[in-house]
């Protein structure tokens, strides 16, 4: 298993074009200048798209790829209305789209590779996936999401104040959580955390872990950074770690006791609260049977990124897509669709926004 994960991370590092992260007065000035120029360019391109409405651009097919952070069938069903919403918005901006095809990748990497190859035109992908594949895609938007009633780097604080509830505050970052389940080992390590006791590497290495694939920010990268920061270890050092193909499957395994802990976004328990008892076979609430044992640093929100090699993509169409998704995110019908990813809206993004993700990838690379 350790060799499997070592191979995975080596593969990811080979794909990534990694850069360091730093801030200085000159850098901030350059970023502000770039942001201004980007905004002006986007505005001009959007205006051109609108003015071109009289000469509508025909696009036979637009392919949108989603990462499998939820059950694929659930994503496809929930996002079905996006096809009409996006077609309508783009029509108003001078683009007549014949078909919107929504796909869910078999992995996060599959969506990144599809964007790079041009077989996927638009991808809703995490920041970690974006920086791994930015040679083949451009970020155009960052998701905003409802904040949570708990926002702390301390695991016990999450346990003392559960259940986690949404707030109306809009945020552009989230945390990763390491959550222990109802197994005997899971309950034992939860008891240590809630008693204020330090947990050791031996405690953690004795557990059965569920992680996501190696480009998942909350399911792999940031938990690795947490292990590195606290124990000078990372996921590839764990004796018992298995990869889940979705968070839903990971929670099902947690409920059954097949695994003791899982890595996920904050707070994925809200999305699996009902299934915990209706589908996963538990009788007590997910809030009663699970506890947070680790909290990662903040992770910048998901992106909407577009392929650099797509045959339908140019600057004017990127500007139109930017405007269309912002409008969708501002509508009630659109909010309902994008809530499948806990998105509440979108703001324009720049590559510079994801410097922390590049730094994370650098650290992951150094762990080999």
What's the layout of helices and strands?
Blueprint: H1 2-15, H2 25-51, E1 57-66, H3 72-92, E2 95-104, H4 108-117, E3 122-125, H5 127-132, E4 137-148, H6 155-160, E5 166-171, E6 173-180, H7 184-194, H8 201-205, E7 209-211, H9 217-231, E8 241-243, H10 247-256, E9 261-265, H11 269-278, H12 286-289, E10 291-300, E11 303-307, H13 315-329, H14 332-338, E12 345-348, H15 355-366
Helix pairs in contact: 2-13, 3-13, 3-14, 9-15
Explain this structure.
The structure is a single chain. This protein is 47% helix and 22% strand. It has 368 residues and is α/β, with parallel strands linked by helices. Helix 3 (72-92) links the parallel strand 1 (57-66) and strand 2. Residues 1-43 and 49-54 have low confidence and may be disordered.
